[in-house]
Specification:
The protein is mainly β and 285 residues long. Helix content is 6%, strand content 41%. The chain is built from three helices and 22 strands.
Amino acid sequence: MHRIQLLGLICLSVACERAQTRPVGTPGQTAYRNVSGRYLQACALTQSGSASCWGEPGAGRPPAGAFTQIATGEHHACGLSAQGAVRCWGTDQRGETMAPAGTFQDITTYFSRTCALDSDGEVVCWGDVRDTPPPGPFVDIEAGKLFECALRADGRIACWGEGQVATDAPSGTFVALGAGRHNACAIRQDQSLVCWGLEDSNPPTSLLAPPTGRFTQVRVGSTHACALRTDGEIACWGASSVQQTSAPAGPFVDLSAGFSFSCGVRPAGGVSCWGWNVSGQLASP
């Protein structure tokens, strides 16, 4: 049985849920600028680009150096340097830390797979790769459990892989997107949200029914999602069994969504996390 399933079975009781959940993490004193949370770990970049990680220890300590972007997987993480090189660290079960040489502009991970956009906007993936991506160029890419979605320069979305996300991508033009276990969401030109994929939770907490309003960023977790409003407040929806949709009051400038937890970066650089704390993923630095 996969560990994520085993944890879910262990924590079906109310006692476990209470023991492993904190509504809001405590902001740290180091100033951070963005955060990435996947599975049961999270990493953040300081203003100078150094990485700090917490939660599930499988990825280990991040290497020294400055990064412009960081992405966390199941037991590994990857960072993008200012020169466009990718460095990965952690457990290497399926080649997920074997980053190729080259210059890249965007990076995403999910479980044991990493994908990046090279300098020409083409998709390059390594690790547990199952499908061939379509030709680019693309300007943004997000990975889900068994699929990827990417945003073209003209705003159209292309998805590939397995499941409803790959086959049900919406038409139209978009400015941002996010992907999770079996779902994806995107922000339209008018800054409204649309989500598609498999229905993972029961109404009235449907992940496929995002809130109304204007948004600048969206991130999708396992059975919940969160989006950043234009005023810096965070709206979350979907499953809420461990308070993963109970976002603290803003404002925020960046956010991420993992396995039943989320994290956000405040304007002053503090990190707040909320939801399930089974591996210390709420213990932000």
